[in-house]
Amino acid sequence: MTIADRVANITPSMTLEITAKAKKMKEEGLPVISFGAGEPDFNTPDYIIEAAKVALDKGMTKYTPASGTADLKAAICNKLKKDNGLSYEPSQIIVSNGAKHALYNAFLAILNSGDEVIIPAPYWLTYPELVKLCGGVPVYVDTKAENGFKLTADELKAAITPRTKAIIINDPNNPSGAVYTKDELWAIAKVVSENPMYIISDEIYEKLVYNGEHFSIANYSSEIKDLTILVNGVSKTYSMTGWRIGYTASNKRIASAISAAQSHCTSNPNSIAQYATLAALLSDKGDEFLKGMLTEFDARRKLIEEELTKSGIDFVRPDGAFYVFVSVKQFIGKSYDGAKIDSARTLANLLIEKANTAVIPCEGFGAPDYIRLSYAISREDISQGLKNITEFTSKLK
Ligand code: PLP
Questions:
Q1: Is the pTM of this model over 0.85?
Q2: Long-range contact list for 285-288, CB < 8 A, 24+ apart?
């Protein structure tokens, strides 16, 4: 018996291959440094954990409305108003099991078979798979290094066809760390207003910006806001990746469709995690936590930039998120101990095997000549890992 094409065509995550290898080697006692982390290495703040305990003690353990509790949706509306200058009503908010689930819901709600979704590359490797899962067709647009790997209005115009249904904007970007300026985003919004399509605006790294400022494209005009499905969550901002809370903010028609779909697929997101998220959003302690995390990430970012510069390795200076996008073009075609490096993936496999250092090859992110280094690890590990990489690259012939 066959399995469905929609799942047969899904590409397994390449990042898992390397991280699983690193984990196994660590368990065997090897001094492995992993630059693979996709989550902050901070504990969820105590005040959030306390709120979850209170919710448990109060017996908040039953189903909630499928789209999230009324209190949480109101708190998300306040957050969107305060931080992003956007007015939404609670009926426009759907709380889901992480931003990833929110993205899946968004594609489920808007895509018919064969609809095209423009995905600027490099991109987070989950986007194309979700688009395909929902019957859509990913249309990749390579962004350019000289534009800071950000999509330009002209590049967008050139990618539009009669089948274009949506575009994904991920700002700040995983894996490049790029942050759009207001002008850059507004230029894209202008093209969209001339060629209406949905905008999936993934703003999960919104609070992790070191240079520049975060803008939400939905602010461009009421027409653009109506076309935008804003995706955000608490995974990165409050170091709550395991709690699985994300959300969409969209027009009411889309919100109702997502709510109906979610009510059958998963019902409500975890009740305790929703109460914890409410506390995360309502307390001033969140700002304090975020400030500390941002300061530490910034110090690590500078450290990694300094060390890479010293090693003569080509990289993109990140303005946001917690990843450095490193070019490996200079190593492709070279050999390590007779083993030829023909791709970022081969390089990543050699780095883990020969230098005890895990990096993420970016083939799956639409950037075959790059690797991604996460700095959601300690400064000691960053220094040791980069030392390992430099020693390794110095042996390439
Ligand atoms: N969007 C981007 C760009 C991400 O990098 C991630 C996680 O790595 C997510 C969304 C998913 O976030 P969540 O853990 O809330 O599902």
A1: yes
A2: 285/45, 285/47, 286/45, 286/237, 286/238
